[in-house]
Amino acid sequence: MQIKPSASIRQNYNEIAALCKSTGEPVYLTKNGEGDLVVMDIEAFNRREKMLKLREELLAIEEDRLAGRAGTAPDELDSYLESIIDEVEHGKDAAL
């Protein structure tokens, strides 16, 4: 985890952008010693959003299962999950 003062984004934008891209991790910016913003590489952000979307879908599926509602066959679910994981791991751009 990288923590920088917020002034560094104005003074060292290229350095912070390179840090985000090279590590794939967010940089936390502080203002007056307190957390203010988080900056991250767009590819890391997109991967994170896809994973959050997948978690939401899995939670909805589990809620349906627990409520006894009809759902997806296990083979269909396995295939779907494998495709989503492949997209996230290989950075493929696909709509979820």
Give structural notes.
By secondary structure, the protein is α+β, with helices and mostly antiparallel strands. It is built from four helices and three strands, in the order E-H-H-E-E-H-H. The protein has helices at 7-11, 13-23, 42-66, 74-90; strands at residues 2-5, 27-31, 34-39. A three-stranded mixed beta sheet has the order 1-2-3. Helix 3 (42-66) packs antiparallel against helix 4 (74-90). The radius of gyration is 19 Å and the shape is elongated. It starts with a strand and ends in a 6-residue tail after the last helix.
Sheet/helix structural class: alpha+beta
User: Into which percent range does the helicity of residues fall?
Assistant: 55-70%
Estimate the mean pLDDT confidence.
Answer: 86
Morphology:
elongated
Distance between the termini: 29 Å
Note the main attributes of this structure.
4 helices, alpha+beta, elongated, 3-stranded mixed sheet, 96 residues
Describe the SSE topology.
Elements: E1 2-5, H1 7-11, H2 13-23, E2 27-31, E3 34-39, H3 42-66, H4 74-90
Parallel strand pairs: 1-2
Antiparallel strand pairs: 2-3
Helix pairs in contact: 3-4
Concise synopsis of the structure shown:
The chain has helices at residues 7-11, 13-23, 42-66, 74-90, and strands spanning 2-5, 27-31, 34-39. It is an alpha+beta fold and 96 residues long.
